[in-house]
Design goal:
By secondary structure, the chain is of the alpha/beta class. Helices cover 49% and strands 8% of the residues. It has helices at 28-39, 57-62, 64-67, 87-104, 122-138, 152-159, 167-177, 215-223, 234-244, 248-265, 272-285, 287-295, 299-314, 322-330, 338-350, 364-373, 390-393, 396-416, 430-433, and strands at 47-51, 72-78, 143-149, 181-188, 207-209, 354-355, 360-361. Helix 10 (248-265) crosses helix 11 (272-285).
């Protein structure tokens, strides 16, 4: 009998159909946030999941059903795939997605009254006919939850005039009218500044931000899906977390390569030495993610990362502090004061690229990429502050102060010197004094 090789469960770039089957770990706090908002009778806000690119927003929605019981009927709605050219088009597409989702969950639509809307009454049809009929299909004891992925698509459609300005007010009215209805939105952090535009549908208190996975979540992700094949030591899991910083896509890629390594070597358990063998390939495969992240940073954030990387390269054991960064910038052509450095550090820490005090790069692979690629010429900051050699630049300000003080003292000494009347007689100019008299 021919043995069938086990299928690698990890997938760093799954399509939508594969997402429900890709290993998933952590996010307990996110699900608790959703559960609290969806079940609290006093709650009036729509839940918003905010996250960076590849942070697992879509994966979270695809794992909504396993976390919640059968009293929640979820409908996943990928807004980037829906026609948002008009309100009629998007509401019709939403109803079609709803019908498909209910059929897949074994609900019968035989009782659904088929009254297709006209172009002029789509909103009225959806609110007063279609939605009440659907809620009747799932029965009163259940809640219908729309999982609207990439809500920034709605923001763009409203800004472009393709959807009405009161779209979010309309959705809020649906929630107020139908207590059985629930909404969950995901939003990319690039649209974080637009969160107030979701009002009155959602407020800032309803937002949960997805962070990188914790060390415990990383260990669970590397062990649970492959427990029938091999195990991973605590040291190996810690090494993977240190290399990836807990970034979900990098962890999926690491799990994929560990699985393949086990298939090739038949080793179990996999140790930290095995992880070290795989890091070069993992680094190369992750280059695009690191490059995209670098290009998404602003000028000061790139400069601070470059400074951190340079200090680490010079002395990996010396703690990196704000003072050390200030000193580094004084010794370069790219001057950045303490206020700007601290602001950039706060932003980088919010992005989970750096951690703690003293400062360090959160992901070891990202640190390696910065050592290989982060150069001052890549910060796009234009010309350096000056062309003065570094060795003399630190003395420029003190020297300038001394010179200015000397000039001021000289002027004051002239002004304060007493002068008599004879001294007030105008003196000939040098030119006149040197010109001989004519005969």
């Amino acid at each position: 009998m021919t043995e069938t090789r086990p299928v690698n469960p990890y997938d760093p770039a799954p399509d939508e159909a594969a997402l429900p089957f890709v290993p998933f770990a952590g996010r307990q706090k996110a699900f608790e946030h959703l559960y609290r908002l969806l079940t609290d009778p006093a709650n009036t806000d729509t839940a918003v999941i905010l996250g960076r690119r590849h942070s697992g927003k879509t994966a979270l929605l695809h794992h909504f059903h396993p976390f919640f019981d059968e009293s929640f009927v979820s409908v996943y709605v990928p807004l980037h795939q829906l026609p948002l050219d008009s309100e009629a088009a998007w509401l019709k597409a939403l109803s079609r997605r709803t019908n498909v989702a209910l059929v897949e969950q074994n609900f019968s639509l035989a009782r659904l009254v088929d009254k297709p809307p006209t172009t002029d009454n789509t909103r009225l049809w959806f609110a007063s006919e279609y939605l009440p009929d659907i809620l009747g299909v799932i029965r009163r004891q259940r809640q219908l939850v729309y999982l609207l992925d990439d809500a920034d698509e709605l923001l763009h459609a409203i800004a472009d005039g393709r959807l009405p300005d009161d779209t979010f007010s309309f959705l809020r009215e649906l929630l107020d009218t139908h207590p059985q209805l629930g909404l969950v939105l995901t939003l990319d952090t690039t649209a974080e500044a637009d969160l107030p535009r979701l009002s009155p549908l959602a407020t800032l208190t309803a937002v949960h931000r997805l962070a990188n996975l914790t060390p415990d979540d990383t260990t669970d992700l590397l062990r649970s899906p492959v427990s029938d094949h091999y195990t991973v030591t605590d040291e190996a899991a810690a090494a993977v977390h240190a290399a990836t910083g807990g970034q979900p896509r990098l962890l999926q890629r690491a799990g994929q390569r560990l699985f393949q390594w086990h298939e090739d070597t038949q080793r179990s358990p996999l140790t930290a030495d095995d992880v070290r063998q795989l890091l070069p390939g993992l680094y190369t495969a992750s280059n695009d993610e690191f490059k995209h992240l670098w290009l998404s940073l602003n000028q000061n954030e790139r400069l601070v990362l470059t400074a951190i990387t340079s200090l680490l390269y010079a002395d990996p054991l010396t703690p990196i502090t704000t003072r050390a960064l200030e000193t580094w910038f004084v010794e370069t052509d790219y001057l950045l004061d303490g206020t700007a450095i601290n602001a950039a550090l706060r932003s980088l820490e919010y992005r989970e690229l750096v951690t703690g005090a003293p400062v360090r790069i959160a992901a070891g692979l990202m640190q390696t990429w910065l050592l290989d690629n982060a150069r001052l010429s890549q910060t796009s900051v234009g010309k350096p502050a000056s062309g003065v050699p570094r060795a003399f630049r630190r003395w420029l300000v003190p020297a300038a102060v001394v010179i200015i003080a000397a000039v001021v003292l000289f002027v004051l000494s002239i002004i304060s010197t007493p002068r008599d009347a004879a001294d007030l007689t105008p003196q000939p100019t040098v030119t006149l004094a040197a010109t001989p008299a004519e005969p």
